[in-house]
């Protein structure tokens, strides 16, 4: 708490209050008070955020063009988050020692990533879960999904999702040499059709 008092105490001006929901990103804009010849190289801009529990985090800001700067922040912790900016150009009152608040409310939507938090490796190192401990079930698809997608590419020659042996032979040509029908179709697609039997 002593560190918090020191950081906030040196902030000279207040910014408008920003608000968002838990785990959703909020972008906070800032405007430089003086020109910078090469802001991308010459200026370092950070925002020190203190959450409701007193934990501090330094979030890098970024140059958004012209005299505009911004920082993006997200947190699963509901409540008031306070911040104070730090700029390498300490004479720029628009970027240095600017104080503000971020009000984070509970998430009200249906997105599981927002409701339960980002995905991480679980403590047992054997599966994935969300930041709040909710298990994350990761399902992978198979080559059939790929074939359904590439069927659109070859729809002129092969109607529908599946290709018969005769249709595949038309595409592959004698000894797999290929025909004019293959023009514009990626090599990976040709390989898939040539190796998947009568139905791909």
Describe, in plain words, how this protein is organized in 3D.
This protein is of the alpha+beta class. It contains 6 helices and 11 strands. The strands form 3 sheets. Strands 1, 2, 4, 5, 8 and 9 form a 6-stranded mixed beta sheet that branches. A 3-stranded antiparallel beta sheet has the order 3-7-6, with no helix packed on it. Strands 10-11 form a two-stranded antiparallel sheet. The relative contact order is 0.14.
Which fold does the CATH topology of the largest domain refer to?
Answer: Immunoglobulin-like
Chain oligomer state: single chain
Number of domains: 2
CATH homologous superfamily title of the largest domain: Immunoglobulins
Shape: elongated
Outline the biggest β-sheet: 6 strands, mixed
| Share of β-strand residues | 25-35%
List the secondary-structure elements in sequence, H or E: HEEEHEEEEEEHEEHHH
Helix content: 10-25%
Secondary structural class: alpha+beta
Q: Poorly predicted ranges (pLDDT <50, ≥5 residues)?
A: 1-8, 156-162, 196-200
SSE topology:
Elements lengths: L1 H8 L3 E2 L3 E4 L4 E6 L7 H4 L2 E6 L5 E5 L1 E2 L4 E6 L5 E9 L10 E8 L6 H5 L2 E3 L6 E3 L12 H8 L14 H8 L14 H9 L5
Parallel strand pairs: 1-9, 2-9
Antiparallel strand pairs: 3-7, 4-5, 4-8, 6-7, 8-9, 10-11
Kindly list the characteristics that best describe this protein.
alpha+beta; 2 domains; 200 residues; disordered N terminus; Immunoglobulin-like; 11 strands; disordered C terminus; 21% helix
């Amino acid at each position: 708490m002593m560190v918090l008092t020191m950081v906030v105490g040196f902030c000279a001006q207040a910014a408008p209050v920003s608000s968002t929901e838990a785990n959703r990103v909020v972008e906070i804009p800032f405007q430089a008070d003086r020109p910078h010849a090469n802001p991308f190289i010459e200026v370092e801009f950070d925002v020190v955020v203190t959450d409701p529990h007193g934990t501090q985090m330094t979030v890098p800001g970024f140059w958004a063009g012209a005299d505009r700067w911004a920082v993006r922040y997200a947190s699963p912790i509901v409540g008031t988050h306070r911040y104070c900016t730090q700029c390498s150009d300490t004479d720029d009152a628009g970027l240095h020692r600017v104080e503000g608040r971020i009000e984070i409310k509970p998430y009200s939507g249906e997105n599981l990533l927002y409701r339960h938090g980002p995905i991480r490796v679980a403590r047992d190192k054997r599966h994935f879960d969300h930041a709040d401990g909710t298990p994350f079930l990761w399902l992978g698809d198979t080559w059939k999904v790929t074939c359904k997608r590439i069927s659109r590419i070859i729809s002129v020659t092969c109607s529908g999702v599946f290709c018969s042996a005769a249709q595949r032979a038309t595409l592959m040509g004698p000894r797999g040499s290929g025909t004019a029908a293959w023009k514009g179709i990626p090599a990976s697609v040709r390989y898939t059709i040539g190796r998947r039997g009568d139905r791909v």
